[in-house]
Amino acid sequence: MRMSGPLAGMVVALGLMCGATPVRAQEHTPRAAELSRQMAEGRHGPQNQIDIVHHIGNAHSIELPIAGTIPLPRFAPLRIGSLAIDLSPTKHLVYMLLAATLVTLVFVTTARSVARAEAQGKPPKGFAGAMEATALYIRQEVILPNVGAHGEGYAPYLLTVFFFILTMNLLGLLPWGATATGNIAVTAALALISFVVIEVAGMRSLGVKGYLSTIFYLPPGLPTAMKPIMLIIMTPVEIIGKLSKPFALAVRLFANMTAGHVLVLALIGLTFLFQSYVVGIGASVLATAIMLLELFVAFLQAFVFTLLTSVFIGLMRAEH
């Protein structure tokens, strides 16, 4: 788990190295010299940058295989004093809603299949059986052991988080798809909700006095003269510790899901940059390997987000 942040940095660095390789090769190939002139005239480099940002960034349009680019409706911004809030739908919002719809449909259908199988005295089979097994594994092996005793009430939220993030990650691997979890605003919102759940769990388990002790730390038996000093030193540390948890959840998910896409785009871009069959085949093989790795990362990051949220809830509920 601790390696996910450095791993994302290594992947981004590798992607930047792949993108920088053609620049060093400009002195040796006529094609690279022509590309250099195009970049100097603004006819090549900026367009590549726009394309990469277009694929990994948000937009007010979506791309479909046959229909092409479809613009999304634009609404007048909501103004609160001098602040203007744009509530127009975006590409990432569409894929978030699609992920929520898919998760709802899958588990409503699964629940009905499981209920029919139980009524017949048989275990569920096929896709319904696989989804039930996955949900039970996450609940029994990941959520409950880390949340602690009497933590069944947190299982529905954490199961929803796992499958919602997993679906968004997988949708980003489809052609013409978009990874909503590659948007820091999306991961920050997920982390903020988890932060609220974590803190409320602490309030419910520890009471008001016990919860305040997680902010204003005063060890038992501390001399009276040391209490103000301890409060001045430890209170900012405790607050930073609370805020660092959602920050780590948001950045880890965002960085890992973005880094893979950047590396794939950098590798595919080598084909168009060099216009060589040899480079194209090599880049395609490497891009395919990275896509397979991204499939694993899609599951891993959903698992890690759920696991860490469960651990943080368990730590708050047993702060003593």
Concise overview:
This protein has nine helices and four strands. The chain has helices spanning 4-24, 30-40, 45-56, 91-119, 126-147, 155-171, 184-212, 226-274, 277-317; strands spanning 61-64, 68-71, 78-80, 83-85.
Task: Specify the number of helices.
Answer: 9
| Quaternary organisation | single chain
- Biggest sheet, in brief? 2 strands, antiparallel
Count of beta strands: 4
Order of helices and strands: HHHEEEEHHHHHH
Percentage beta strand: under 5%
Shape summary: globular
**Head-to-tail CA distance between termini:** 25 Å
Radius of gyration over C-alpha positions, nearest whole angstrom: 24 Å
Structural class: mainly alpha
Strand order of the largest sheet: 1-2
Low-confidence stretches: 1-33, 38-50
Estimate the helix proportion, in percent: over 70%
What is the arithmetic mean of pLDDT? 81
Return the domain count: 1
